[in-house]
Amino acid sequence: MDIYEQIVELRRERRRGAVATIVNVRGSIPSFRTAKMLVRDDGSIVGTIGGGCVEADVWQAAREVMESERPQTLIFDLNQDPRYDTGLVCGGTLEVFIEPVLPQPLLYIFGAGHVSASLSKVAANVGFELIIHDDRTSYATKERFPEAREIHALDFDEAIRKIEPNENSYIVIVTRGHRDDMRILRWAVQTRARYVGMIGSRRKVIEIFKTLQKEGLPEHLFDRVHAPIGFDIGAITPEEIAVAITAELISIRRHAAGNLPHMSWFRSRNSQPETNDPAPAVDEHE
Q: Which neighbouring-strand residues pair with 24?
């Protein structure tokens, strides 16, 4: 099977893989420079880089690359370690570059107002696939969201019953009302989505979290919620807010947000009065 066709098929099925390529060779090896092997997320392979212990080690590294979503480089000295040639020393050295094959990230935007319209454009430009949900037919239209893959004008409760986000999914909640935000968040924190973000001030967020906890949702579910949503860049306009949110999405996608603040502040703040907590510029619903 053609490796490139299989890569396209993996992405079409929204699955993961890793491609191993021999990028450098010195001396004699059991394969050739540019030889490739694709490892799928189910462990199956397409192609070969020479077989034996080298290929087994590369297969294992490919699994790690899929998990970390970061490339690796392996160097094998066949002259120093005969096991890589099943006891027959080739005497050469090969360098293998392993890169991840990842599905396009899928962004669910709940709410189709001005912020969502700007966010859709910015997020699409940096590679996110978009699905828009709103309960207003006049807002959830192709004219407002020409870059979206899907647009649904449904009651939010009906919409979320049809969605099963996975680890490659991102959820942004920017509806026109706190009640809708809360019912979507109630569902979102219990999904496998990689990112959950909700618009609003800390005051509003804390009240919603307290309400959901009274309903029985565990506190730890809210630790991964990004709210107020987006990086604090002083954004005011819908276009600026879209940039702030997209920057946060990128940081999660590229594993660059390990030390960035999110809802961990809720545990230490949820029992304190909010007398002097200023609302961010982004707290109005559309």
A: 95
Q: What is the pLDDT of residue 266?
A: 52
Nearest to 95 by CA among 25, 14, 46: 25
Cα–Cα distance, 23 to 205 (Å, whole number): 50
Written as six digits, the tokens of 263 are 């809802």
Structure tokens at 47: 């192609």
| Cβ atoms 65, 72 nearer than 8 A | yes
| pLDDT over 80 at 245, yes or no | yes
DSSP letter string, 226-265: E-S-S--S---SHHHHHHHHHHHHHHHHTT--TTS--TTH
Q: Could you tell me the sign of the dihedral formed by the alpha carbons of 167, 170, 175, 179, in that order?
A: positive
pLDDT in tens, 250-274: 999 988 865 555 544 454 554 444 4
Given the candidates 2.60.40.10, 3.40.50.720, 2.40.110.10, 3.30.950.10, the CATH classification of the domain at 106-269 is 3.40.50.720
Report cis status (omega within 30 of 0) of the bond before 228.
Answer: yes
CA nearest neighbour of 98 among 124, 62, 127, 126: 62
The model's pTM: 0.82
Helix locations, the chain, DSSP H = 3-12, 52-68, 114-125, 156-161, 178-188, 202-214, 238-253, 265-269
The residue extents of the domains of the chain are 3-101, 106-269
Which of the given ranges, 41-45, 78-82, 251-255, has the highest pLDDT on average?
A: 41-45
